[in-house]
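Same chain as my last thread, 273 residues:
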Amino acid sequence: MVESASEADVLERVESLEEPLYNPFIERYLIDEVRNLRDEQQRMRAELIKEITDRELSVADRAMSYSTNTVTYFFYILAGASSLLVLVGWSSLREVKDRVHKLADEQIRELVATYEKRLDKMEAQIKVRGKQIKENADEIERTNEIHSLWLRTSQEVSVEKRIEIYDQILRLRRDDVEAMTHKADDVLELREPQWALNLCEQALSIEPEHAHAHYQTACAYAMMEHNEQAMQSLKTAVELSNSYYNEALHDPLLAVLVDTDSFQALADSLSLS
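reply #2:
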C-alpha cells in the first residue's frame, strides 16, 4: 500500500502528466464492441421471430391441406357408397353417411390436438428465448454502466469518492470481486483494517484463489499487528502471482514482515523456483 499523497502532491503530479490517464480510443472500441453485440442480439431476435412465423404458417398450411384432402376423400367414398347402396335403401345410406361424418370429425380432432401440442411447445421455446434475449440486453446495459464507473475511479483523487463509486458497482453486480478488493485497498488508506478484512473475506468466499484479495488480507492483518496471519496470506498471494513479492518489498504496511525469517524463506523459495 502506498501512503495517501497530499492534495498538493496530487495536483503537482496531475500538472506534470504528459499523456492522459486513459485512452479514449480504447473506451470507444469497448463501446463499439458492446453496441455490435447488442445489434447481433437484435438480429438474432428478428431471425428467430421470422423462422417461428414461417414454421407456424407451414404448420397451418399443412393442417389445412390435410383437412381438405381428408374431407374430399371421405366425400368420394360417400359418393361411391351411395351409388352402391342406393338399391339397398335410404336407411343404410344414412347410417353410412353418419359413420363417415363421425370418422372425419375424429380424425380432424386428433389432427388439431397434435398440432396444438406442437404449437404449445414452440410457444414455450419462444418465451425461453425471449427471456434470454432480455437478460442479455440487461447485462449489456449493466456492463456499460459498470465500465463508465470504473473509468470514473481511475480519474477520482478522493479516497471517499472512490469508495462511493465501488459501492455503486457492487449494487449493480454484487459478486464483483475486483470492486471488493479495490475498495479494500482504499479502506486501508482510511486506516480501517477490520473493514478491509471483511471485504477481502467476502471476495475470497466468491473466488478463493484471487491473489489481490489475499494480498489485501495480508495488509489488513499487518495493520492489526497479526503478523503470522499476515505472512500466511502474503505467502498465498505470492504463490498465486509472483509479482506481489516485489510489491510487498515496497509496501509500508508490510514493512514489519520484510525482515522476518518467514519472509526470507518466502524469498528463498522464489529464487529456487
